[in-house]
Amino acid sequence: MTDLLDRRSALQGLVVMAASAAVPQAWAGMSPAQTAPAASPLPRLLLDTRLASAEWRGLGALEHRGAPVALEAELVRQWRRGLWAQLRASGGPVRALVRWDHALVLQGLAREERCQATVTQCGPALFEVRFNA
Fold first, then answer.
1. 7 with 14: CB under 8 angstroms?
2. 36: exposed, middle or buried (C-beta count within 10 Å: 0-12, 13-18, 19+)?
3. What are the structural domain ranges in the chain?
4. Fewer CB within a 10 Å sphere, N or C end of the chain?
5. 111 Cβ partners below 8 Å, 6+ apart?
6. CATH: 1.10.357, 3.40.50, 3.40.720, 3.30.110. Which one for 44-132?
7. Cα–Cα distance between 73 and 50 in angstroms, integer?
């Protein structure tokens, strides 16, 4: 009396498991508020002190949490002295508005911390760097 699992039975079992996992949670008795995804937190804002306010104010509403962090000319030293620890402690997304050289440095520093940073050009001399702390 051996009960062997053949390929057909295994595939049928996988299909049943996948279908049952795809059932919306609302059908399982949860309210829509419980099944709604959590709102993403506002990003921390890092501002390059070398930028004129007219350069970044043209971007529209800059929603962020907490006071913006001013980036010094010696960005690597500031990062290693505790900026990264401060960002990591607050958690969540980070948005930096900087010039091209700080954008490259921030991207490299984030990569050292195993964070994927995306850099986009917002103006002739303005770049935005986004990553999660």
1. no
2. exposed
3. 44-132
4. N
5. 117
6. 3.30.110
7. 8
90's tokens? 């607050």
Query: What tokens appear for 2 in the block?
Result: 């051996």
Distance between CA 74 and CA 84 in Å, rounded?
14
The secondary structure of 89-119 as a DSSP string is HH-SEEEEEE-HHHHHHHHHHHHHTT---EE
Res 118 pLDDT > 70: yes
pLDDT tens-digit series, residues 54-85: 666 666 546 676 778 889 989 999 999 999 99
Token digits of residue 120:
């986009």
pTM of the model: 0.63
Spatial separation of the C-alpha atoms in residues 94 and 64, rounded to whole Å: 9
> Do 117 and 111 form a contact (C-beta atoms < 8 A)?
yes
74: tokens are 């010696």
Task: Provide the sign of the torsion angle of the four alpha carbons 94, 99, 102, 108, taken in this order.
Answer: positive
Tokens of 35: 């099944």
Q: Which residue has the higher pLDDT, 45 or 39?
A: 45
